[in-house]
Design a protein that fits this description.
The chain is α/β, with parallel strands linked by helices. 43% of the residues lie in helices and 17% in strands. Strands 2-7-1-8-9-10 form a six-stranded parallel beta sheet, with helices on both faces. It has a two-stranded parallel ribbon with strand order 3-6. Strands 4-5 form a two-stranded antiparallel sheet.
Length: 237
């Protein structure tokens, strides 16, 4: 194993939060790790270059400041339109593809021993006319962390995503339930238990609601969870 892949049940569930926390936890634990965001859409233009906000979040969390050439390896496909990667590729005429991403990762391994990769959207989001994000995960064969929200509707989305990952032969390192809403109810309390029960999972990590995710890596409770998860991933390798 040379890395871990962070995916989600959809967009906006907290993949970047978890990827950044894991990256910092691995590095704090002595692992030479770097982040990868293979595809980023909705990129703002800064000083004439498309910036990848998710990648920058992870880099900042870990206190890393690589040069632009290294960032290009970490996020080879950047698009201005905020849409699915396949649609961004169709609009721009340049589609993301698994082979190119793997090649960039191989170059990154000259600089590190471990990669924390964050997908775009969910498990089955299309990259181009023939490949999905799942195809990249299969090609890598790394353990997968699935990030899910904690509120109503998450059981179905989580179980469907887990079924696809398991059918593909991928190992589930954990499901991280990210409580995006502050209110606690019988639903938000039961959802993580239900996901664990029906998916027959041993590892469920819960992230309490954080009003300011920018301060996540400074949150002791959050980082304790990420440190524990990072250790479990390494022990299972």
């Amino acid at each position: 194993m040379r890395g871990v892949f962070v995916t989600g049940t959809g967009t906006g569930v907290g993949k970047t939060l978890v990827a950044a926390g894991l990256l910092k936890a691995f590095r704090d634990g002595g692992v030479s790790a770097l982040p990868v965001k293979p595809v980023q859409t909705g990129c703002p233009s800064i000083a004439g270059r498309l910036s990848a906000p998710d990648l920058e979040f992870s880099l900042n969390a870990a206190g890393l400041a690589p040069d632009e050439s290294l960032k290009d390896l970490m996020c080879p496909f950047r698009y201005s339109p905020a849409c699915s990667p396949h649609l961004a590729g169709r609009i721009t005429g340049i589609y993301p593809d698994v082979g190119t991403v793997i090649g960039k990762m191989d170059q990154l391994f000259e600089k590190c021993d471990f990669l924390v990769a964050e997908g775009a959207g969910g498990v089955l989001v299309p990259l181009n006319d023939s490949e999905k994000m799942l195809d990249l995960m299969i090609e890598l064969g790394w353990p997968v962390v699935l990030v899910a929200r904690g509120d109503l509707g998450t059981i179905n989305h989580s179980l469907l995503s887990l079924a696809v990952l398991k059918n593909a032969g991928l190992r589930i390192a954990a499901v991280v339930v990210n409580h995006l809403i502050e209110e606690t109810s019988i639903v938000t309390i039961d959802n993580p238990r239900a996901i664990a029960q029906y998916a027959e999972l041993a590892q469920i990590v819960e992230i309490p609601h954080m009003r300011n995710p920018q301060e996540s890596v400074g949150n002791p409770s959050f980082m304790e969870s990420m440190s524990g998860l990072s250790r479990n991933i390494m022990e299972q390798s």
